[in-house]
UniProtKB/TrEMBL annotation:
<protein>
    <submittedName>
        <fullName>Lipopolysaccharide biosynthesis protein</fullName>
    </submittedName>
</protein>
<dbReference type="Pfam" id="PF01943">
    <property type="entry name" value="Polysacc_synt"/>
</dbReference>
<feature type="transmembrane region" description="Helical">
    <location>
        <begin position="303"/>
        <end position="330"/>
    </location>
</feature>
<feature type="transmembrane region" description="Helical">
    <location>
        <begin position="398"/>
        <end position="421"/>
    </location>
</feature>
<feature type="transmembrane region" description="Helical">
    <location>
        <begin position="20"/>
        <end position="39"/>
    </location>
</feature>
<dbReference type="InterPro" id="IPR050833">
    <property type="entry name" value="Poly_Biosynth_Transport"/>
</dbReference>
<feature type="transmembrane region" description="Helical">
    <location>
        <begin position="372"/>
        <end position="392"/>
    </location>
</feature>
<keyword id="KW-1003">Cell membrane</keyword>
<feature type="transmembrane region" description="Helical">
    <location>
        <begin position="51"/>
        <end position="73"/>
    </location>
</feature>
<keyword id="KW-1133">Transmembrane helix</keyword>
<dbReference type="InterPro" id="IPR002797">
    <property type="entry name" value="Polysacc_synth"/>
</dbReference>
<feature type="transmembrane region" description="Helical">
    <location>
        <begin position="85"/>
        <end position="108"/>
    </location>
</feature>
<keyword id="KW-0472">Membrane</keyword>
<feature type="transmembrane region" description="Helical">
    <location>
        <begin position="124"/>
        <end position="144"/>
    </location>
</feature>
<feature type="transmembrane region" description="Helical">
    <location>
        <begin position="156"/>
        <end position="176"/>
    </location>
</feature>
<feature type="transmembrane region" description="Helical">
    <location>
        <begin position="182"/>
        <end position="204"/>
    </location>
</feature>
<keyword id="KW-0812">Transmembrane</keyword>
Length: 451
């Protein structure tokens, strides 16, 4: 298990690195070959495919998690049924999304949206349509990623997804260096999506060897269950949008545009520590979910406790580092254009400690495939946070906004951690005891290596 967790962690780290390259590497080439204005218009047009990408209603995630849990529990008939149901549900969602996409493009063109950009109208329509199809095909990889987790080879799936991102960057570079435009760029992304998903699905099916003797059936109960859970997963971006956009809007109304710049830049820098959390959850989640499927409570407890400990240590180190050096780095980063008091800074970064508990606990809800409680907790906490930011800003200024901002992390830590214990069928006392044991074990190993 330790080897698998290490492999998963390394694969997740590689995937994060490639994703960063995907987001940053092409930007100077876009600007150099297309020009800043043309590239800006293209970014605006890509909003449409990005929104359409949410149209699977969380079906891929729900079906994937259901498949893993049934397969790990050796319910091979149920896993076989989900395999067929998941594939056809995703295919149906892609067809529906294509219809929605075609109507969206038609309406936008009818209102001359594409004619008002500096990009040729026909080029814009073709490029956006092609890119939407490329994004929709990736619905399949969301589902079939579960096959790699079920086979306990999650690192292979993660590495393949990193390869997909790398191929997207490479294909984009070839198009830009060749002097081609947006249609060729979109076509390159579609070509990568087609080839990658064929490879990903083929290799995924090879990981699973116990379902060939079972006849797959599409059951109405499975369809209903996947759609229901899918809506739960879809609520996560909803509450995040309420939190991030709502608090920003509240600060803008009460404190003005400059305060918004300070508020969001501090939040961005303080939440940079979260990227380290994702390495831990990415490494542990596949193993935790498999143990949930097996019903092995002892290993579930150990994995969860170790994850909490690892993330809390990372959070504490990040908090201390930012408390000592963060404000100095912030002033350099913003070129001393934005002023922040030490008190406001410390309040902002204190949210890191609370955040570590609920962020780690969130993977439990995915592992047991029960997303609604977490999503509802997020919605409630985000609304309370927005309200607090608004009213506290009236009386305490930016300090009040900082307190309201970390209220979400505090509330979710109080709500989500006990719920995660409940879903794993462990008591909070058991978790506390295992947390202490994990800390002593880690300290002993560290001390032994030093000696």
């Amino acid at each position: 298990m330790n080897k698998r967790i290490l492999k998963n962690g390394l694969a997740t780290g590689l995937q994060k690195g490639v994703k960063i390259c995907e987001q940053l590497l092409l930007v100077p080439f876009f600007i150099s070959y297309w020009g800043a204005a043309y590239y800006g218009e293209w970014l605006t047009l890509t909003i449409i495919p990005s929104i359409i990408a949410f149209s699977d209603l969380g079906v891929g995630t729900a079906a994937s998690n259901t498949f893993v849990l049934k397969y790990a529990a050796k319910n091979y008939q149920g896993a076989s049924n989900i395999s067929k149901t998941g594939f056809w549900l995703i295919s149906f969602m892609i067809v529906c999304a294509l219809i929605i996409a075609a109507l969206t493009v038609f309406l936008l063109d009818n209102y001359d949206v594409f004619s008002k950009t500096i990009i040729d109208r026909r080029d814009a329509i073709y490029a956006v349509s092609i890119l939407m199809l490329a994004r929709l095909l990736n619905f399949y990889s969301q589902f079939y990623e579960g096959y790699y987790r079920a086979a306990r080879r999650a690192n292979v799936g993660i590495n393949l997804l990193a390869l997909n991102a790398a191929l997207n960057v490479l294909a984009g570079l070839v198009v830009l260096l060749s002097g081609k435009g947006i249609i060729a760029f979109a076509a390159s992304q579609l070509g990568v999506a087609v080839l990658f998903n064929l490879l990903f699905v083929t290799l995924a099916n090879r990981q699973i060897k116990n379902l060939k003797s079972y006849k797959s059936r599409i059951l109405r109960s499975d369809v209903k269950m996947i759609m229901n859970k899918g809506m739960g997963y879809l609520l996560s971006p909803v509450w995040q949008s309420i939190y991030f956009q709502g608090t920003t809007f509240a600060v803008r109304i009460i404190l003005g545009p400059q305060a918004v710049a300070v508020f969001n830049t501090i939040r961005t820098l303080s939440r940079s520590v979260n990227q380290m959390y994702s390495l831990v959850s990415g490494a542990v989640f596949p193993e935790l979910q498999y143990e949930v499927g097996l019903g092995n409570k002892k290993k579930q407890l150990k994995l969860f406790a170790y994850s909490l400990l690892a993330v809390f240590i990372l959070a504490f180190v990040g908090f201390v580092f930012l408390a000592v050096f963060g404000l100095w780095f912030y002033n350099i980063w913003t070129q001393n254009e934005l002023e922040v008091s030490n008190t406001v800074w410390l309040v902002f970064i204190s949210g890191i400690l609370f955040n570590s508990f609920w962020w780690t606990s969130a993977m439990v809800f995915r592992a047991v495939n029960r997303p609604y409680r977490f999503a509802m907790a997020g919605i409630i906490a985000s609304i309370i946070s927005v309200i607090l930011v608004y009213f506290l800003s009236l009386y305490l200024g930016l300090l009040g906004a900082a307190i309201g901002n970390i209220a979400l992390d505090f509330l979710l830590a109080l709500i989500v951690l006990p719920l995660a214990c409940k879903y794993l069928n462990i008591s909070f006392q058991d978790l506390s005891d295992e947390f202490v044991v994990s800390w002593r074990t880690l300290k002993y190993k560290f001390k032994s290596k030093l000696e």
